[in-house]
Design goal:
Layout: H1 3-14, H2 23-30, H3 34-46, E1 51-54, E2 58-61, H4 74-90, H5 93-109, H6 112-119, H7 133-147, E3 149-156, E4 162-174, E5 179-185, E6 190-195, E7 199-208, H8 217-228
Antiparallel strand pairs: 1-2, 3-4, 3-7, 4-5, 5-6
Helix pairs in contact: 2-3, 4-5
């Protein structure tokens, strides 16, 4: 039995058990050695599956853990892998690490035939963005959006003029070439867009803001669609 198929069967056997199942029992069902089962359990632990128990006693999954279905076609897996590569290449370092961890988890449970298909694909994504200052700003902005903290920003506009803004950060948009911050600008009392590669300095303030019916990302997108159509 291929390793990926064996790992999936171990997860299935562990799922929903109130009592533990021993490595010997798993080995008998899967027609392999106890040593192999111990190695497989360690792989599951390393990839984040909440396996409880220990060698010589038995194993089970933590109660309440649900296993998402991993039933990808070759094209679906290619789409997922390409998406993960884009996150690794075009986001911040924290998201890039999470994308790699997700890739390892997926590849631990997919059949070997799909792994081979994935390894042979030639869709590549450059990772040069990760080392830019804009990527560093991206991490700070993303956290400020999630926690609703004001931003103070020094910005250089396209015409070379410098400005300082206090913003309510609402969202980050990747337009295909550059990341853009969507924010409510307290200076202009309106929505504004700021390219991350033009940010000169950025401070996440300790004060929080609140959105309302007129100031939020959904309202901004609605305005955008009214101007440019449903493709936005």
């Amino acid at each position: 039995m291929a390793k990926a198929d064996r790992l999936l069967k171990i997860i299935t056997l562990l799922k929903g058990r109130r009592t533990v199942i021993t490595a010997r029992q798993l080995a008998e069902v899967l027609e392999t050695s106890e040593r192999t089962i111990y190695r497989d359990i360690q792989v599951l632990l390393d990839t984040g599956f909440p396996v409880e128990g220990e060698a010589g006693v038995g194993y089970r999954l933590q109660p309440g853990f649900e296993i998402p279905p991993i039933m990808f076609t070759a094209e679906q897996l290619l789409a997922v892998q390409l998406g993960l590569k884009m996150v690794q290449g075009w986001s911040d370092k924290e998201l890039a690490i999470s994308a790699e961890e997700a890739r390892v988890k997926i590849e631990a449970v997919i059949p070997d035939r799909l792994k081979e298909t994935n390894q042979q694909n030639c869709l590549l994504v450059s990772k040069h963005y990760l080392n830019t200052e804009a990527a560093q700003h991206s991490l700070s902005i993303r956290r400020a959006i999630q926690q609703q903290y004001y931003l103070t920003m020094a910005y250089k506009k396209a015409d070379g003029e410098h400005s300082k803004r206090v913003l309510m950060p609402l969202g980050l948009v990747y337009w295909g070439q550059k990341w853009t911050l969507i924010a409510w600008c307290l200076l202009r009392h309106d929505y504004r867009e700021f390219r991350l590669d033009r940010i000169q300095a950025l401070v996440v303030e300790s004060e929080k803001f609140s959105t309302d019916e007129s100031i939020n990302l959904t309202s901004y997108l609605k305005l955008l669609r009214e101007l440019y159509g449903e493709q936005c």
